Structures are given as C-alpha cells and as structure tokens.
Amino acid sequence: MIEVLKKKLVVIGGGPAGMAAAVAAYEKGERDILILERDTALGGILRQCIHNGFGLHRFGEELTGPEYAYRYEKQVKDLGIPYMLDTMVIEVSPDRTVTAMNKEHGIFRIQAGAIVLAMGCRERPKGALNIAGTRPAGIYTAGTAQKFVNMKGYMPGREVVILGSGDIGLIMARRMTLEGAKVKAVLELLPYSGGLARNIEQCLHDFDIPLKLSHTVIEIHGKERLEGVTVAAVDENRRPIPETAEYIPCDTLLLSCGLIPENELTRGAGIPLDRVTGGAVVDEDRECEIPGIFAAGNVLHVHDLVDYVSEEAKIAGEAAVKFLRGETEKSVSIALKADGKVRYTVPQIIKSVKDTKVYFRVADVYRDKKLVIRDGEKILLSKKKPKFAPGEMETVTLTAEMLKNLSNCQLNFAIED
Amino acid sequence: MKKRDLTCIVCPKGCSLCVTLSDEGRVVNVEGFTCPRGKEYAEKECTHPERCVTSTVRTADGFVVPCKTARTVPKESVFRVMDAINHTVAPAAVHVGDVLIQDVAGTGVSVVATANKEI
C-alpha cells in the first residue's frame, strides 16, 4: 500500500526558485508546505557556482552562489519550512498528485492543494551537438567540470578548449586558469557571445584567453584520452569553412552550449509547453494551463541572473497561496505574441488586470532599435534601447491602466527601427 | 592624451566605458557609465585594478569548501592569492564568513568561507 500524504503546497526543487517560492508562500501565511529536493542539500546549482556576482538586485550586495543560496536556506530553516532531501519526484499528475521516492519512505504520493514546479534546467549534452571524431575521455559539459573542481576538488585536465561562450563556459575558463590549467581558446558558433559582457571582460580578457567568434569544433581526436580538437571558422549559415581548419592540442574539451529547462514532470502532467522557452506556458501569476500548478525559475525559462529567479518564484509562491484560498481572480485573456525578433515573452498570457512585469528575450543583437508593443494598430508602448542582445533578458512593465482598455485580446511584441 | 575602452564588471549590465588618460596616466575623463560605481571602477581599473578572488580551500578531512577574498585585491596579486589558498588547509567544520586566511599574500585582505561545512 503506497503511503499518501496530504499537503497544501508542494514545491518541487530546493534550489533558488523553490526556496524563494516556499518562503514567499510562508510569508503570505501558508504553513502546510513541503519542499522536495533530489540532491543531498538545499541550494541547487548555486552550490557549485562559487564565483561572485549574485544578489546585487535582490540583496544590494555582491555575493557568491553558495552565499546567495545560504541566505534562502537560512530563511527556510529559521521559518521551519519542511523539506525532504534525497527525494526524487517521478510523476506529477493533472489532479495535483505528486509521486516521489526516497530511501526512508520508498515510493509515496502526496495529494497537493497547489504545486510549484522549480526543477531548474540542465546543460545541452555532447550527444546533442553532433561533433565528428572519436569519443575519448576528457569531454565534459562546463557545469560537470564546475562540479568536479568546485565541489569535489578534482581538476578535469590541464589544457583546455571550451566550446560555447555561455556564462558557465566563461566562468569555467577563469576557474580552470586560476587553478593552473591553460585555456587555449573559447569558441562560439554565433557571431556574438551568449554570455554577459562583464564575464567576457573578467574571465577571458583578464587572462588573455582568445574568444573565437563564428568558430566551432569540427573533429575530436584521441583514443583513450582527448588529444586535441580541430576547429574551424563557420560561414553565415554556420557551416564550417574547411580552409580555416586548425588543430589545437588539448586534453579537455568543455561544452557550454546552452541550457534546457528540465520539464519531464511538466510534460508528464500534460501541461502545455512553449516551444521557444522549453518551459510551461504561464500567465502573470506563473500559473500553468492546469489550475493550481505554478512554475518559476529556470524550469520556466533560462534566466541570466538568480535575482530574477527569486523575483519570479516569489510571484509563483504568493499566487499559489491565493489559489489555495480561492482568491484567484482571472477576468481577461490577453495573449502576448512575439514577432520572432522578440523570441519569447514570459508570461505568454495575461489573465488579470494589474501591473505586470513581462520578461522577454531577443533573437539577435539589435542596435538602436526599439521594443514596440501594439494593441492591434495602436502602439501601447515603445521603448528605445542602444542595444538588445540575446544573452541579456529584458523586462518591460504593462500597467493596469494599459491593460484596462484594450481593443484586442492579443498584444504584439516587436523590435523595430 | 589617450583613450581606453573598458567593459564595466561591477554589475551584470556591463556598460561600455571610455576613459581618457593624460600622458602621465592620470584619469582625465570617463564616459559611458550609468552609475557612480561604474565611474569609480573605470578610474580604479586604469590606475590600480582590483579583483575579488573566489576559489576553494581543502579541509582537514579531505573535502573542499568555497571561499573568497573578503574585499577586492590588487589584480597583479591574484595568482599569489591563489597560491596561498592552495597551500591552506581549513578546519573540517567551517561556517559562512569564517576567516580561513588572514592578510592573504600580503594584501591585507582576508579569505573567508562562503559556505557551511559540517564534519
């Protein structure tokens, strides 16, 4: 007989999003909360992000990842919010039943009043990149290498090439260099980096590590252990140019080629996902299309800054409490449509009239353009910026005033001259 | 007079800065900053650049704990700081904020733990 528990609010994931959602729900008055975390400690990926730069928005000071996580962990513990570690959730059903397992309880079920999905994201693996050549040891995702170095104290190698210029790749270029490795190059397929400008400066320029834009790895060499990679420039269609091929000896290749929201549970529950974000389609409360199930943080869309993850999780946690009390008011249905230059918006749909902060990302680098939001033909808002970049999440606030008198049930987001 | 282009590293905005320096290397003018800290960074970066160092320290029981310099240290001392960190053994139990090294590599700055570790 499988044990069935009853909980008002179940939070899946004890990283920054899950902890912030649980704390926000507690502060709204909810006491019957349970956080389920599959790792051995709360904190999520922040535990291995030992570099600083976290918390400037949220706490007004620069913290390292573990310190940021600790601030929330301390709140969770001080408030006495229950959590289970080493606990893997294996299914979420549309009627809000959570099936999980751990050593102590075996397989068990929780009938939840509301659920916050906060499972985070994972890295795009090598298998998804289709690089030719052999399959020797020495090839890791940047995050795996980060875990080895920062949590286990092992160096994965001495001579390193990094494919992909996402923030984790840049951070690891510096980290490996500080620990005595030689980082020979960071290669980026696109003509621009997906990482933050400050990380290019302090992680690459500080150590004279070359960033080769419009370059990729075309072949992996080595039998037992990686011996080198052949790299080449790519043309505007991202096809390698054979004449530019160059061999770089190395014993380690790190991959930093994007993050994918981890939505197996979400999909299993039949919750509709946004093909662009890889996360659930949500309204301004971060409520999915199945009532009472909310999502926040990197499981919803990949953020650049944990500060925004906390902010988003607070919205979800507070809204979950309103749902539990039957206080949710959904009076409208306004779809937010991205034109393609705006890649996506979160939320994707607005269901109540109140000031709503919309996060969005652009598809390419745009200089001296403006974001234009239209209600039919009418321009609702226009915001000029010297630069929009895909690596930097943007925000815009739609006021209750704007949302009150719309002629259409759709708002179009576009980047224009 | 000469000009130097910088990317501000104070916050994630990463403002593009342009610093005008006199022939003696004094900062004459800074453009492109959007907050006072950006201006301060540009001036420091052109005269005596500093960085915060984050790393890990081995513990007496063979694990590692994350650490950081409590303040920024001169940029040219970064590898000396790393060397000192890598020659330090921390106690098996540490708490966020515990001082692990005092006056690291003669910088006058201490290295502190950034996570808790129990035995």
Q: Could you say what the CATH architecture of the largest domain in chain B is?
A: Roll
- Write down how many β-strands of chain A occur, each being a DSSP E stretch of 2 or more residues: 28
CATH names the topology of the largest domain in chain B as CPE0013-like fold
Q: Which fold name corresponds to the CATH topology of the largest domain in chain A?
A: FAD/NAD(P)-binding domain
Descriptive account of the structure:
The complex is a heterodimer of chains A (417) and B (119). Chain A is an alpha/beta fold. Chain A has eight helices and 28 strands. In chain A, the strands form seven sheets. In chain A, strands 1, 2, 5, 6, 7, 8 and 20 form a seven-stranded mixed beta sheet that branches. In chain A, strands 11-18-12-13-14 form a five-stranded parallel beta sheet. In chain A, strand 7 and strand 8 form a beta hairpin. The longest helix of chain A is centred in the C-terminal third of the chain and has 19 residues. Chain B folds into two domains: 46 residues, Single Sheet (N-terminal domain of TfIIb), CATH 2.20.25; 60 residues, CPE0013-like fold (Roll). In chain B, strands 8-5-6-10-9 form a five-stranded mixed beta sheet.
Task: Chart the SSEs and their pairings.
The complex is a heterodimer of chains A (417) and B (119).
Chain A: E1 3-12, H1 16-27, E2 33-36, E3 52-54, E4 63-64, H2 65-79, E5 83-84, E6 88-92, E7 97-102, E8 106-117, E9 121-123, E10 132-133, E11 139-141, H3 142-152, E12 159-163, H4 167-178, E13 182-188, H5 197-204, E14 211-213, E15 215-221, E16 228-233, E17 246-249, E18 252-255, E19 259-261, H6 264-268, E20 293-295, H7 306-324, E21 334-338, E22 342-346, E23 349-350, E24 356-362, E25 366-375, E26 378-388, E27 394-398, H8 400-404, E28 410-416
Parallel strand pairs in A: 1-2, 1-8, 2-5, 8-20, 10-15, 11-18, 12-13, 12-18, 13-14, 21-28
Antiparallel strand pairs in A: 3-4, 6-7, 7-8, 9-19, 15-16, 16-17, 21-23, 22-24, 24-27, 25-26, 25-28
Helix pairs in contact in A: 1-2, 1-7, 3-4, 4-5
Chain B: E1 2-7, E2 16-21, E3 27-31, H1 36-47, E4 50-51, E5 54-59, E6 64-69, E7 73-74, H2 78-86, E8 89-90, E9 99-101, E10 111-113
Parallel strand pairs in B: 5-8
Antiparallel strand pairs in B: 1-2, 2-3, 4-7, 5-6, 6-10, 9-10
